[in-house]
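Trying the structure run again after the queue cleared.
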Amino acid sequence: MTGQGERRDLLIVGGGLVGMTLALAAARAGLTSHVVDRAYPAELTAEGADGRASAISTASWNLFGNIGIADALEPLGCPIEAIAVTDGMKPGRIDFRPKPEEGTLGRMFANRDLRLALFAAAEGVEEIAWHTKAEVVERERGPHGVSATLADGRVLRASLMVAAEGRQSPTRDEAGFSLAKWDYSHRAIVTALTHELPHEGVAWEIFYPDGPFALLPLLDLPDGRHRSALVWTVSEKDAAGVLKLPDAVFTSEVVKAMHGVFGAVELAAPRMSFPLKFHHSRKLADHRLALVGDAAHGMHPIAGQGLNLGLRDVGALVEVLTEGMRLGLEPGDAQLLARYEKWRSLDAFMVMSVTDGLTRLFGIPGKLPSAARRLGMGAVQRMPALKRFFMDEARGMSGKLPELLRG
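Done. C-alpha cells:
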C-alpha cells in the first residue's frame, strides 16, 4: 500500500471490520482511501484479543464475495441452518428453518478470522494507504476537501471523511452530531463453549426476564469437539458476580439456562463482557463527512444485526459515490451525502426499533406477559408468510439493498 502523501478520495478514520470492508469495496470501485487506525493489525488479530463471533447475513456474505474475501473465509464459517426462538424454553417456540434450496440463514465467524481475511486482502492494494498505530490529533473539513493531522505530524488529505471508529467515535462527537441513546443497564457476557451434543447448525435465542441467552453455532474444533459462541445478557448489578464465578459454577449455570440441550459443557475461551447501550445518530452525514457502522448506530445484540447493519452502510455509501463519480461529482459532494443519509437513516432506524422492541417485550416479567408472548410466537410458527418475513430480515435481504449486497 502506497500513497502516504497525496490527496485521496476517502479518509476513513477507523480500520476495523466496517472501516476496512469500506476501503476494499471502495478500491474495487476505483476509489482511493487513507485508512487510519490506532492499533497495529497484529494487536487486533492476536489469539484471545477478541473472543467475539459475528453472524454474517446472506447479504453481507454477498458483499464479502464481491470484494474478494469470501473464498478465504468459506472454510472458517459455520452455516446457520436454523434459528430457535423460545421464551425461557417453555412450550410455544418458533423455529426458523429455510427449505434446502433456499440456503442458510447466514454464517457464524470468529471476529479474529474476519479481521485476518480483511487485512490480508488489503495488503498490496494500491488504492488503500493504511496508517496503523496512528492517532488523529486534528480534523479539518474545508470547502474543497478534508484533512487529518496525525500525532507524528503527517497530514492526510481527501475529498470525504468517513467516521468508522465505532460507538465512541471522536470524529462524530467533534462534528457535534447528537445521538438518541439509552442504557439498557445490562451487560453481555461473551465466551465460547465446547459441548457434548452437536448443535446441528441451530442458533438458539432463549429469552429470560433478565435478558436473552444466545447460543450461536461455530465450527467443530479439529479434535471433533462441538462448539458454540455464548452471548448471555445479565443485569449490570449481577454482571461482576457472574464474571467471577468459578468455571465449574459458570458452566453449570449455562447448562441450567440451556435446559441441557447440548449436554455437558466446558469453557473454550476467556469470559469477556460489554455494556449494552442503544444509540442512533440523528444525522448520518454532514459537510464532507459520513458515518458508517457503530459510529452511526449501536444496538442490542439480540438479533445479531449490528455488524450487518454497518456492512449495509458500506454498500450504500460505495454505490452512491460510484454513481456520483460517473456523473463527474467528487466523493465529498453534498448531493451524494444527502442521498446516502436518506437511504440509510430509515433502514437502520427500522431494524434498530424492532430489535429494541423485542428486548423490551421479552424483558417484561410475569406469567401473563409470558403467556401472551408464547401465544404470539405460536401464531408466527403457524403463518408461513410471517416466518418468511422474519427469515428475510435475518438474511438481510429485505428493503432497498445496495448492489454489492445482492449477490
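The chain has two domains: 8-180+277-405, 184-276. Worth checking whether this holds up in the mutant runs.
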